[in-house]
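Ticket #175: bound-state structure for MU-OXO-diiron.
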Amino acid sequence: MISKKLETAINEQIKLEEQSARVYMAMASWCEANGLPGAAKFLYTHSDEERLHMLKFIHFLNDRGGYSALQALEMPKTDFSTLADIFKSILHHEEYVTKKINELVDLCLTEKDHTTNSFLQWFVTEQIEEESTVREISDKIKLLGEAHGGYFHVDMYLAGLAATAAASMAAAKKV
Ligand code: FEO
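RESOLUTION: The complex was predicted; output attached.
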């Protein structure tokens, strides 16, 4: 049985993961409407991944005798200026998610909840990958984005990343 403190904290994390899905979907829609189909595909896929993160937390909490109670979400930002700005704000957002995951781990240690701690380690590793992917994309945008036709190449690169991410999500669902 999970403690009330952890139940509340995980419900907050569920909200954050669902909010992340919405934030990335809003960015994807802007890219789609502004001639960046590869970036849109990448961000729609990323939004789907966040929904999977949310579901992982929901199932875990309910399985441990808690209750995943969904909360109201905030209105996401819908107006953007450049792809560089979008990825800068994704990096800030993911750094915040990492901080919240680390706080959850800290709480598990205080509550001596080793089961939840073990479950959270998947997210600790996932955050390393998420941050590093976004940093890599930001570097590519810096390198190519300003040059003539640079965004075209960045967009193609993101379409490739989206295809890889979609394939690994499909494989994970089969496991
Ligand atoms: Fe679920 Fe991108 O953190």
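RESOLUTION NOTES: Residues 17, 20, 50, 53, 94, 97, 130 surround MU-OXO-diiron (CB under 6 Å).
TICKET STATUS: resolved
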